[in-house]
Sequence to fold (350 residues):
Amino acid sequence: MTQLATRPRPRRVLRSRGGSVSLRLHARSTAATIGLVLAIAVIGVLTLTIGEYELTVSQVLSALAGEGGRAAQYVITEFRLPRWLTGLLVGAALAVSGAIMQNLARNPLGSPDFIGFTTGAATGGILMVLAGAGAAQLAFGAIAGGVLTALAMYLLAFTKGVHGSRLVLVGVGVNAILIAVNSYLISRASLRDATAAQAWLTGSLNSRGWEHVLPVTVALALLLPVAFAYGRRLSLLEMGDEAASALGVPVQRSRAILMITSVALAGVAVASAGPIGFVALMAPQLTRRLTKAASAVLLPTALMGAFVVSLSDFAAQRFFSPVAVPVGVMTAAVGGVYLAWLLATEWRGR
Fold:
């Protein structure tokens, strides 16, 4: 499968006085970024106002300011706002993680969903759930599971460096093994633990509070700047190792740093909401088609991931009310259709 064929678009470069700091503006990417911010804001208004306890926009603003009725403040600050923010942050983390891995692998299927990162993180999380651990231990287990999976994949795929196609093939095999491990762990657990682990595996934003928002906020504040700083190198690596090396990019070191960043983002997302499937696959590809950019554009990709998760969670809450459908079910349903369409499009293009 090949990447979407794109043509380089004219860009405008803004430079500070002296030229020490510069910013390249891609007109279509800038328009897409603004559009996604507005779309996220619309979903946010709908999420905060619609529900069993209906609120107007002015009531929501009063509640956020610490005014209005106690009931409105409780609903907004304890339930709806932390849930919406968790979805935004998790979606952004998954999308950027997917964009990095798809570009390193030079393959749209090289996302954390397919090459084992999120499954390995899920394995760590399941072990913590079955051990009866709390939220902090579960987060640690998920991140450790993702990191160990990535380390195993890197060692298995390393032969005079790590190449994209080999990484994807090794990752698909590791992912299949870890799925079997997760099924075995659940089958050996008690009914109560197995139910809890299976519910967590679905990927859900139910009952998410500020204790979930704060860790993922700190993690993104540390990891996203690294991803953005290496965004230029990511684009050069997509041209191939030889071309990137000829342009002065330390290929293996840059690839290792970007892989660590991608794994950490996926691990943090899984630790916060469970393995929400297909977001890491869809968001980077949707952003490429929206921006028509020749390489990964991480800021609109992060916003696309936030939009996909927040929209899916809103639909999961409202379309099936009063049943609480996990957001992972919605993203899996939409992602399956998208994957079928992507494969059909690629097949027709051959």
Notes: The two ends are 10 Å apart (CA to CA). The longest helix spans residues 70-105. The beta strands are 11-15, 22-26.
